[in-house]
């Protein structure tokens, strides 16, 4: 869980910082007063950012078909909110996105099993440590005799989350180890079971959770040489939030004194038991259904705006006015030349600096803007495919350029590009899945949620795969039907 | 005193560095039928397309009903184009519309005619070109000759003052040429002003009031059909006619 910021986040953070530089001259520095605590109290809510895929720290449970974030970190956040006299709001997102969310004021604090490493301390303020975990290694139970501690893994392959501290520990402290990095713990467990890795390095409480819930797994103490901070877990705040950090530290002190984390971990264990009580996919159908709903919602709205904007950009690119043409070209080429993933993060965090947009809206905006560039090129091709004589005939009858476009060129272009537009629609269903990184609860997001909740890696993937296929296949069928009808008409 | 409809004054047209039309002059009077003939590549199409500004002349004036087309803006040109029907070599019927919709489109969009009136007008014009029963078919299902007759009806629907024909029969199978020429001849008989670029010498001989022979971007010779076909003065005209008659 103790991930180092990936390079991707760095890019976004930089651009966000750049934008932020214009947007808000860091007011803490100029005014001298620091109002982080006052602001939380004024709005009456404490927004916690977390990545609920890390039991027992934070994970999702299925309560009557609805999902809830629970775990030790949630209990801690509840206590803090209660101590401050405000309401707790939980915002879910990928671990990767948490620090940027702090930076851009999307959340007030991050509690997500995060370690206060020296690198992180440069950009984030941390509370006192509320929990000290150890590092363990999960192995297949069948191999129990083979491995004792980290040194048993010399020249063996080991798994850990990409960019995590565990990954670095394995690499530095085990001679000749072949480290295998994956983003999700659940995927690492799959790798372990299929012997792509002989062990997975993980924090002790998490390792315990997996072992408790999977009879095929066992854990051993890694006996790693742990430096400062790497073993600790603390709460992250935006740099300069001194008053808020001080207030929260009082709660942390109390938690430490009363050893409350013990109780919290026990609660988490109970949740995990009930979670694994019924792990049939049917039990989680509500998750998948909600995922389908969001995936379709995002796709349909994005197709609509993608086509509208796509027409606009296509016309701009076809325009004889040099500036308009140039703007069209720049937009289309730029959007097609950058990954959708970055665009999603840029809209959510970058634009979010100026106006606070919910993740769902940000996702829709990003996907629409992205699709618009591709649709624009399809439409441009379609318009160019309409014979010049059609335009000349219309113009010779006295139709204006606009009337010619509306009545003659565009309908014919549309007929020519219908199959390509359909493909774009179908691929949007698949590509929109990227919005899960900012916490939009689409099908991919729900797939991961079910994976963490059930400790089952493969079956949720199969279910999601089938659902995606049903969606795209039936859509293709429908589109084909209209394509044939259109051909028949003309 | 004959009424002047179009006056062409010192028209030049260049595509890049190639000079396609060189200092053309001419007058079209109301009710006249002008046939433009000449070897291909001579600039006939380009000339005709300059008349309704589908091509912008590089210099010179085109006076149409007392306005200089080359000095007008987009919307003024659109208004004058209504009065100049054009028929193309490749028909250019709108493939996304039925025959009757093709004819109705401009009256509804440009003249803001009601759909009912436009429908009546279209059916009348389709009957005039002998295609009333094809009203609801799509162009793709019609023969070339039928498509060209629809194209003529479509142009007539705007009630133009002059009709421009750009080699209207060149893309047709020989057996269909007659039906289109017949429609054009009827139009001429009704007094329509027409400028026709054509390779149909028979049509030019029988229907034209004046024949303009064009070669190398200039009108090498102008005259009545009798003058041009029976007593050509210009060497190039003589050559051209000799080749045509051999073929
Ligand atoms: N859009 C254009 N761009 C460049 N050259 C052209 C264009 N249209 C016509 N031309 C050239 O102009 C000359 C005259 O063409 P055209 O008017 O079609 O002659 P005609 O109709 O007598 O056969 C030809 O040499 C042709 O290649």
Automatic annotation (TrEMBL), chain A:
Major location category of this protein: membrane
Matches recorded under PROSITE patterns: ABC_TM1
Phosphoprotein is among the record's keywords: no
Keywords in alphabetical order: Amino-acid transport, Cell membrane, Membrane, Signal, Transmembrane, Transmembrane helix, Transport
Membrane-spanning residues: 294-315, 346-367, 457-479
Subcellular localization: Cell membrane
Domain of life per record: Bacteria
InterPro entries hit by this protein: AA_ABC_transptr_permease_3TM (IPR010065), ArtM/GltK/GlnP/TcyL/YhdX-like (IPR043429), MetI-like (IPR000515), MetI-like_sf (IPR035906), Solute-binding_3/MltF_N (IPR001638)
Membership in a protein family: Belongs to the binding-protein-dependent transport system permease family. HisMQ subfamily.
Protein name: ABC transporter substrate-binding protein/permease
Organism the protein comes from: Loigolactobacillus binensis
């Amino acid at each position: 869980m103790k991930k180092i910021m990936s390079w991707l986040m760095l890019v976004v953070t930089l651009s966000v910082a750049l934008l932020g530089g214009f947007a808000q001259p860091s007011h803490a520095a100029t005014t001298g007063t620091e109002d982080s605590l006052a602001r939380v109290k004024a709005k009456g809510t404490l927004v916690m950012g977390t990545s609920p895929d890390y039991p027992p720290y934070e994970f999702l449970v299925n309560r009557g078909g609805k999902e809830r974030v629970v775990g030790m970190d949630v209990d801690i956040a509840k206590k803090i909110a209660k101590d401050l006299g405000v309401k707790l709001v939980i915002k879910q997102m990928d671990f990767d996105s948490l620090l940027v969310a702090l930076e851009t004021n999307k959340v007030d604090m991050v509690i997500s099993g995060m370690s206060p490493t020296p690198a992180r301390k440069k950009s984030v303020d941390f509370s006192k440590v509320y929990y000290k975990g150890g590092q363990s290694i999960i192995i297949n139970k069948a191999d129990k005799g083979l491995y004792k501690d980290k040194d048993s893994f010399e020249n063996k392959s080991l798994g850990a989350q990409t960019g995590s501290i565990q990954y670095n520990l394995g690499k530095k402290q085990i001679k000749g180890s072949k480290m295998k990095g994956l983003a999700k713990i659940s995927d690492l467990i799959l790798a372990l079971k299929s012997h792509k890795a002989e062990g997975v390095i993980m924090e002790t409480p998490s390792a315990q959770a997996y072992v408790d819930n999977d009879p095929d797994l066992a854990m051993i103490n890694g006996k790693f040489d742990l430096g400062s901070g790497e073993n600790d877990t603390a709460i992250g705040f935006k740099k300069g939030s001194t008053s808020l950090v001080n207030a929260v530290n009082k709660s942390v002190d109390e938690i430490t004194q009363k050893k409350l984390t013990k109780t919290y971990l026990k609660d988490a264990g109970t949740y995990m038991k009930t979670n694994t009580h019924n792990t049939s996919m049917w039990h989680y159908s509500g998750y998948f259904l909600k995922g389908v709903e969001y995936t379709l919602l995002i796709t349909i709205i994005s197709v609509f705006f993608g086509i509208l904007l796509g027409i606009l950009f296509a016309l701009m690119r076809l325009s004889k006015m040099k500036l308009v043409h140039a703007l069209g070209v720049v937009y289309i080429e730029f959007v097609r030349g950058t990954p959708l993933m970055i665009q999603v993060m840029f809209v959510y965090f970058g634009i979010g600096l100026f106006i606070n947009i919910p993740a769902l809206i940000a996702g829709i905006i990003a996907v629409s803007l992205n699709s618009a560039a591709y649709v624009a090129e399809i439409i441009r091709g379609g318009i160019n495919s309409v014979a010049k004589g059609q335009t000349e005939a219309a113009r010779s009858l006295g139709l204006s350029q606009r009337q010619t476009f509306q009545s003659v060129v565009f309908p014919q272009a549309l007929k020519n590009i219908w199959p390509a537009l359909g493909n774009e629609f179908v691929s949007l269903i698949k590509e929109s899945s990227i919005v899960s990184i900012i916490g939009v609860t689409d099908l991919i997001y729900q797939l991961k949620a079910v994976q963490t909740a059930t400790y089952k890696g493969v079956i949720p993937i199969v279910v999601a795969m089938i659902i995606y296929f049903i969606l795209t296949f039936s859509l293709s069928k429908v589109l084909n039907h209209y394509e044939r009808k259109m051909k028949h008409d003309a | 005193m004959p009424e002047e409809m179009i006056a062409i004054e010192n028209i030049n047209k260049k595509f890049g560095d190639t000079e396609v039309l060189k200092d053309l002059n001419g007058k079209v009077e109301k009710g006249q039928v002008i046939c433009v003939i000449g070897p291909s590549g001579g600039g006939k199409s380009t000339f005709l397309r300059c008349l309704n500004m589908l091509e912008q002349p590089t210099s010179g004036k085109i006076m149409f009903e007392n306005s200089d087309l080359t000095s007008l803006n987009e919307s003024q040109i659109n208004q004058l184009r209504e009065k100049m029907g054009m028929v193309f070599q490749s028909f250019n019927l709108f493939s996304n519309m039925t025959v009757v919709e093709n004819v109705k489109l401009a009256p509804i969009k440009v003249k803001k005619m009601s759909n009912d009136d436009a429908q009546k007008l279209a059916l009348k014009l389709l009957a005039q070109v002998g295609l009333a029963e094809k009203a609801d078919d799509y162009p793709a299902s019609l023969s070339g000759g039928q498509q060209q007759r629809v194209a003529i009806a479509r142009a007539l629907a705007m009630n133009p003052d002059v009709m421009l024909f750009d080699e209207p029969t060149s893309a047709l199978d020989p057996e269909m040429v007659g039906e289109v020429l017949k429609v054009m001849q009827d139009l001429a008989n009704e007094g329509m002003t027409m400028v026709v670029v054509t390779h149909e010498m028979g049509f030019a001989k029988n229907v034209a009031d004046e024949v303009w022979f064009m070669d190398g971007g200039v009108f090498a010779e102008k005259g009545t059909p009798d003058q041009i076909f029976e007593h050509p003065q210009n060497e190039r005209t003589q050559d051209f006619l000799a080749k045509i008659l051999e073929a």
